[in-house]
Amino acid sequence: MSLPGTNSTPMIRTVDLQKTYVLGEENIVRALRGVDFQVAQGSYVAIMGPSGSGKSTILNLLGCLDRPSDGQYFLGTEDVSQMDDNQLSEVRGRRIGFIFQSYNLIAQLTVLENIQVPLVYQGVDLRDYEERCVDLAKLVGLGDRLDHRPSQLSGGQQQRVAVARSLVNDPLIILADEPTGNLDSKTGTEVLDLIDRLNGDGKTIILVTHDDKVARRAHRVIHMKDGRIDREVVNRELTPR
Amino acid sequence: MLRFQFVSTVRLGIKSLMLHKLRAMLTMLGIIFGVCSVIAMLAIGEGASYEAQERIKKLGSNNVIVNSYKPAEDNQQNSGNRGMQIDYGLTYQDASRLQATIPGVKRVLPMRIIRENVRFSRNEVPCQVIGTLPFYPTVVGVDQVRGRFLCHLDERHQNNVCVITTGLAQRLFPYQDPLQHAVKISEFYYRVVGIIRETGTADQRPQTGQMEGEPIDNNVYIPLSTSRTRFGEVLIRRSAGSFQAEKVELHRVTVQMETLEAVETADPQIKLVLDRFHDRKDYEVIVPLELLRQAQETKRMFNIVLGSIAAISLLVGGIGIMNIMLATVTERTREIGVRRALGAKKRDIVTQFLVETVVLSIGGGLIGVTVGLIVPVIVSHLTAMKTIVTVWSVFVAFGISGAVGIVFGIYPARAAANLDPIEALRHE
Q1: Angle CA A102–A108–A112, to nearest 5
Q2: Sheet strands (E) in B60-122
Q3: What's the pLDDT tens digit per position in A10-64?
Q4: What is the nearest CA distance from A88 to chain B, expressed in angstroms?
């Protein structure tokens, strides 16, 4: 019997993933020193670790925002580690949903338009997807604020818009980088509940956090240290169905 | 699908610009002034050169004009030795020689031009009394307003008849119908048989390069034979105690050529023929076609100068746009990062910023065109200068403004697209 959370086809598989930043002739930072791990479809993984442990780097690599210096990264069945910039953009647009610490909504767009942004780059007719976007806004409890600007929303509401936006392209995985970092505990809990619900609906979620309380909601917690996986904790109470 | 994306990109660009309306307006100013100045300056220049060219055209592009002129002072003493009489200029013989020898000549029109006062009742107007032949209207552009022109019988019988210009008619006959009235020129009376409007102004002296100023429109036309008998060949001019006598047979000979090609070669040939019988340079040859060319050349130079000024102002406008767009890119780094993370390719970011720049420059171009169309109207209203807005100048100015947007938009747009998404996301 395999470990909980790794029991089905791996959605993400990394093989000896390395990332080296050359900042100067003498100054070479090895942010990742060989990371091997797998994430199964539908699982909920939290990545923890002190600053400088490489957790941001691995999130950037998993999010296809960057290419590894060495090693391989399979997203679904595709090796994305060798893709060029255009292909990576394509993968980001179609397969990955991002939730950022600072929401990163576009200020001049309304709630509805912000949710639509990933679709714009898929070259689809937005009118065909309007209903879906409205449904997503309702899902995150903002069905009555479609015409509001981000500046007219509270932090929690903005983050919920970001959640809706991350779902609009029906991604394979959702990457959340400290999603509650800028929120008070009450609204933070609301957002985390929302993420739990997404996971309950079968979305694969990878979440980076400092907060133990946040990490406790995940099936697995991966602790990073010095560019390597230090240890992995499986939360047996929350194994997926 | 693509079209939809384009429309939404343009809409997004406009929306982003509208966030900073004042900034967008100020950015557009450079382009507005550039485009406006191109159109307005070209319209004024075009108007000015049109007027100049029209005047030259009136001289007749098929014509070559040979004028008599008084030779320089030092020659007078040698040749004009017979008392005070100065003998110079074209002769009747010259006219018939030109008719006979120059290839491609259609007609040779001799003219005697004498300055005299013309009187009717109490009105007295200084004007040119032009003795000429009946076919004058076929050589020089003339509108017959009323009555008739001189005819062969007038010429043969040396009739005392005259045709006056509209300008003179207004001054001499403010309240009467001039036809069949007699005007007095020096000692004699001449019956007015017709009124014409000069489309070719006979006494323009375009060789001096002065195209501006009111054309002298006080002309009286009488038969050449009448002019000869009534005024004689020797004209005496009294001024301040001294008097001067000139013997001039013809003041002007207009040679009408068959074709434009013949005009090209006529100038040296005429000089060749005349030089044999004129030991002094007492005539000048004016080729209106040549003047027209010069005027066109001047216009071309003018256009180049205006074009350079306009190009510089558009360049400055373009740099202004680029500057603002670079600032915008810095300001919106975060947004660029987000868009990249959400699937935007480099190309999408380039398009987004390029569209904004082009919207700015085209918007500026449109406003500039509008202002540029209004300015010439105001100018011609205030200064009575003719202005002509040419269609091509509008298109060129507008086209250049669009091109400026693309050229100066590419660098900021590429700078935006080449941002590292991770860095951009981290940007505060």
Answers
A1: 80
A2: 63-68, 85-87, 105-120
A3: 889 999 999 998 888 888 888 899 999 899 988 999 999 988 888 889 999 999 9
A4: 8
Percent above pLDDT 90 for chain B? 26
Residue ranges covered by each domain of chain B: 2-55+295-426, 70-281
Structure tokens that stand for B141 in this block:
């552009």
Q: pTM, whole model, 2 decimals?
A: 0.71
B-chain CB neighbours of A121 within 8 Å are: 339, 342-345, 348
Tell me the C-alpha distance between A109 and B382, whole Å: 49
CB B385 within 8 Å of CB B44: yes
C-beta of residue B166 within 8 angstroms of C-beta of residue B195: yes
Single out the residue of B344, B7, B346 nearest to residue A94, CA to CA. Answer: B344
Are B341 and A86 a contacting pair at CB < 8 A?
no
What is the domain range of residue A63?
10-235
Whether A156 is in a domain gets the answer yes
Residue of chain A whose Cα is closest to the Cα of B347: A86
**B348/A contact by beta carbon, under 8 A:** yes
Q: Do A106 and B335 touch (CB under 8 A)?
A: yes
Instruction: In whole angstroms, give the CA distance from residue A63 to residue A174.
Output: 9
* CB neighbour list of residue B325: distance below 8 Å, 6 or more residues apart: B353, B356, B357, B408, B409, B412, B413
For residue A240, is it within any domain? no
Q: Checking DSSP bridges between strand A44-48 and strand A220-225, what pairing results, if any?
A: parallel
Q: Does B414 touch chain A (CB under 8 A)?
A: no
**Residue A241 maps to a domain:** no
Place of tokens 């397969």: A95
Mutate to test the interface with B, among A121, A126, A128, A161 (most CBs of B within 10 A): A121
A165–B421 CB contact, under 8 Å: no
Q: Flag whether A67 is in a domain.
A: yes
Q: Which one of B16, B334, B343 has the shortest CB-CB distance to A122?
A: B343
What digits encode the pLDDT tens for the residues B76-123? 454 444 456 778 888 888 899 999 988 888 889 999 988 888 999 888
The full DSSP string for B194-224 is: EEEEESS-TT--GGGT---SPPP--EEEEEH
Inter-chain touch A106–B339, beta carbons under 8 Å: yes
Let me know: does B167 contact B86? Beta carbons within 8 Å: no
Task: Give yes or no for B15 touching A (CB within 8 A).
Answer: yes
ipTM: 0.91
CATH number where A160 lies: 3.40.50.300
Region of B304 on the Ramachandran plot (φ > 0 left; ψ -120 to 50 alpha; else beta): alpha
Q: Which CA distances in Å does B310 have to A230, B10, B360, B396?
A: 67, 28, 18, 11
Q: From residue B122, how far is each of A165, B119, B168, B171, B216 by CA, in Å?
A: 96, 7, 14, 11, 21
The answer to whether the Cβ–Cβ distance between B346 and A126 falls below 8 Å is no
Angle at alpha carbon of residue B402, lines to B399 and B405, rounded to 5°: 150
